Amino acid sequence: MRNNWVVKDLRERIFGNMTFDEIHIWNTNLVALDPSAVLSSKDRLESLTISHSLLEEFPFRVLPRMTRLRTLHLSHGFLKSVPALESPSLKNLLLWNNEIHALEPRWSMPVLERLDISHNPISDLPPGMVEGMRNLMSFDASHCNLGPVLRNGSLAFQSKSLAKIFLQENDIVKLEPGAITGLRNDTRLDLRGNKIRNLTEGSFRPMLEHLSSGTSGFIFLWGNPVICDEWLVRSPDFKKFLQRLEGVECVSKSSKSPAK
Q: Transmembrane residues, as ranges (predicted)?
């Protein structure tokens, strides 16, 4: 359904006995839908999209029963909160550009590969939110309100496939030790456009140690007022750590010229 400005809700049993593999709703005045509208396809539906609409509510509680659902795309709407989500099948959860300000803890999404909650006024990530996502490849919480301090335990990743973390434009000034854990040696962490000044040892050394054991993992820091901390420029691992940092210019104590 596209460019429909008449339908404002999908009422109970609106589809009758019809079932679908995919449902795509774009550019509408849809505000809400009855759980039965999607449950009628619970054994068949693989992809559900509602985007560029007026969606304020979604029956997230039906997800455990949607056993074939792989992609849930709810972007450019007016969702304000998201409960603890549970899905045995979901691989892509896309919630960007809503008005989400709160996320509840204790999510259970063991096969999720991509989570996008960017461009929402989220100010806090519930502890343990990503811990059970053991197949997560991409996490995007850019352009939210996670600063000024990203707290210990905010992002404790446990996925062996983690490739990309997007946290740019969050007004982050400081990462507490343990704020981001579980990086692989090929993970790319994007912190561009924040307000990070100090690469504090307790926060950044553990991440750099993981990344420096590989060749394709980086921390991107362009657009931050970064000053190289003393521990970094004096570290015997200075050169290999610096190779994992993009957007940072440091001078080693043993060098008279910038290393980058």
A: none
